[in-house]
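Before relying on records like the one below, remember that each one covers exactly one chain. Contacts with other chains, cofactors or solvent are not represented anywhere in the record.
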Amino acid sequence: QVQLVESGGGLVQVGDSLRLSCAASGRSITVYAMGWFRQAPGKEREFVGSISWNRVDTYYADSVKGRFTISRDNAKNTVDLQMNSLKPEDTAVYYCAADRITSAQQMATALGEHLEVWGQGTLVTVSS
């Protein structure tokens, strides 16, 4: 079973950049679609972005498109989320997720609510 650990969260100012990292252990993530989700205080968890196992396809929520970039290094067993031009509404706990069946595209749908593996989350706070 894969275990996921997120890191890189913190307190930043509006317009700053931050890079989150998700480190996998236990087995290779090569065959897993990987995704990033977030949950703001008092709100439901929402999809942020996802990447296919072969890095060919990436998908993003409209709210982060053009500002966030997801990438993965299967050799290092890591998935990153580069976040630029951060806004106060990006404040949330960010979660990394993995699934062998659900595709990266499907992660953006309701199917993304029931993924195989989740990390514990890392908090991102954007201060104005």
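The longest helix spans residues 104-107.
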